[in-house]
Amino acid sequence: MRIPESELILNQDGSVYHLNLLPEHISDTIITVGDPNRVALVSQYFDLIEVQVQRREFITHTGYYKGKRITVVSTGIGTGNIDIVLNELDALVNIDLVNRTVNEEKIHLHIIRIGTSGTIQENIPLGSHLVTEYAIGLDSLMQFYPLVQTGYETTISEALQENLKLGYQPYCVRGSDILREQLGYDMVPGHTVTCPGFYAPQGRELRLGLKIENLMQQLQKFRVEEENIPGFMLTNFEMETAALYALGRMLEHEVISLNAIVANRFTYQFHPTTDQVIDDLIRKTLDRLALTS
Ligand code: R1P
Ligand code: URA
Q1: ipTM
Q2: How many angstroms is it from 115 CA to the middle of ligand 1?
Q3: Ligand nearest to the CA of 119
Q4: Domain 23-290, what fold?
Q5: Domains of the chain: which residue ranges?
Q6: CB within 8 A of 109, min separation 6: which ones?
Q7: Mean pLDDT score, 119-132
Q8: Ramachandran class of 76: left when φ > 0, alpha when ψ lies in -120 to 50, beta otherwise
Q9: Strand 110-119 relative to strand 269-270: parallel, antiparallel, unpaired?
């Protein structure tokens, strides 16, 4: 079936609408970062940069690190942007952009988010690197996609809905086991809450009150105990991971989220040298990616 011009929008040069990229511009190993300035902080370590493209907040560099071809792309903030980035990256590899048809043979991307995050648990120190096992989305993106959750994921999302008395069901998705083992084996394992905002949706109060009272404390104390499964607790906040995991599952890509912990919401501390923590995570990730096939 041909996908019409209004549904998959291409620029005059045939590139995808927002990312401004052609299929040859990307590798099948893709690092996503929120901050557009972080793209160059990753690609500064490449031996060679062969592609540099920008449109809006979406900056892309593709190059080689120790012989491995890697693309790094900025997503900006929020799950709305993840909807655009994942759909357009997938279109670049799984849709014939000339004939506008879905390719029969699918390419499975490896997508690694290198992001910043705030922990909600006292015992996770500032400066930690945390790998997300399950991500829980409090945003509305999955109200629009037919995501299928496992029984355990449904248990978590129903329990959280009940706990917070939300008028909609959050979504819970497990990330890639393969990438977690390859890249995050010595990191703090965690379950990440993806929020549709930075302030009230993460329980921060400046001049406005909170509609969900004590949101942060409620999430901190949230537990799900299941027979034969270690107790489930939430560990950190950010704004993209759950959407990456959910769209990654539906589009059949491997996705993992690696988080530099820059804030501790329990102790009210912010890391004094976040650049160093992020740089450590970038170098660690690149070195580990170079060892993968
Ligand atoms: C908020 O400051 C931003 O930082 C976190 C959140 O997910 C949000 O995007 O990630 P990045 O540092 O990757 O942007
Ligand atoms: N990013 C977030 O979304 N929240 C934090 O507390 C820190 C980074």
Answers
A1: 0.99
A2: 6
A3: 2
A4: Rossmann fold (3.40.50)
A5: 23-290
A6: 28, 29, 30, 89, 90, 93, 253, 254
A7: 96
A8: left
A9: unpaired
